[in-house]
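Two quick folds needed for the group meeting slides. Do the first one here.
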Amino acid sequence: MRNLSVAGVNDTSDLLVDVNNSVATVVLNRPKQLNALNLDMVRKLYPLYKNWQTSDEVNLIVMKGEGKGFCAGGDIVAICKAGLEGDFTLAKDFFSEEYNLNYTIGTSNVPQIAILDGPTMGGGVGLSVHGKYRVATENTVFAMPETAIGFFCDVGGTYFLPRLQGELGMYLALTGKRLMGFDNVKAGIATHYVPSERIEELENQLNSLDSFETTKIESVLDGYSQVIEHDSSYNIDEVNTLFGGSSVEEIMNSLAENNGAFAQSCKKSIDRFSPTSIKVVYKQVRTGKTLGFRDTFELEYKISQEFMRNKDFYEGVRSLLVDKDKAFRWDPPTLDQVRDEVVEKYFTAEDQMKWLE
């Protein structure tokens, strides 16, 4: 890997970049942190992607993670720590610039192939799901687990979650449940499934392309992609029945009245998570059905900043990621205590996202 276009990107960096035969290979390089995304990485990635849109240098982008993960999320512990000290600058900058990057990936005229060979959660989803191609392997673990830390399903979750089949997006958003391996293709998170032992060969083929028409790129991907027999973690008919309610309360009643293992597992998860987050995420997913792609990120910025002003985000990060005692003390502690006007504040906050040039 070598330095390209961005000062400070080198072999000891948290981001490695190489261009060969018009293919840019981008490696997220924080393996000890499962390649968790931080502001420094965002600030290196954004100008690269903007430059590649107007340059003849790159016709295809391949993004992957170093080590055993693609990207397990954003570096929210640092954001939490700064907020607890009364400094909200990091939260403003990180979320605004991260969402700019997500939008740029999703609107780029240069196709991206994300190799999801390992945990792909939160911020890692934002780096991949908006790109044209996403390759799952047997190691892929997808999740949007934000309700567990008193936050919400950002990085464009407002847009892509309600556009998954049926109520699948609502199920994934409220429960934070994981999709493993081929289930990601079934769900529409991934576009292809390639065994990890063949990923290097796939990359070599992509780097050997003599032209980059869509048909040629897809011919290579399709040639390596497999359809495999697998035990799915969900049944879409059951998901639609349980998560199609017109309110959180209706969904919780459906789960409570169903004695099946799947329903009870979902209920147990939601019962543990931040009631405020659950209510906000429900409204987020329903609202997102009619929002445009750019509007999604403007709304998410408002929601993110409102969470920074309230207690549950800090409590969730403390309990799950810092002290790791999982002794959540949510405020308020139950769904019936979360007032509608409080939820509405997340969607009407005055915070304005700054769009970068």
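Then this one, please, same format:
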Amino acid sequence: ATFLTSTPITMAILRCVPDKQRSFALGVQWLFIRLLGAIPGPILFGVTIDSSCILWGIEPCGAKGACWTYSNNRMSDLLVGISAACKVVTILFLILAFCLYKPPADVAGSQREDSKVIATVST
């Protein structure tokens, strides 16, 4: 279901950002995806998986070891809930951006300078 949010966001960036700044805008988008998703995501899912543990192993030194048994129902509910909540937040921000965006007045009526096509004919 990632395509439900990633494709519209990329298309919105490509349509809203001036031609000369599109590659920079896509780079900033991926920076935020990595900072807000790839770094805290595994930590959040690890804590979630650990919280669904029923039986912890004990190391010889008395420290808590690896989990031996998980509550499958609790783990599935938590993981699906976190994933669904993240998607809902993403879609809400996408709808908010769609409602609040106002295109610049000068671009709507005139042709963009970068989109001119120059044709040459050789004889």
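Slide caption for protein two: The chain has a mean pLDDT of 81.
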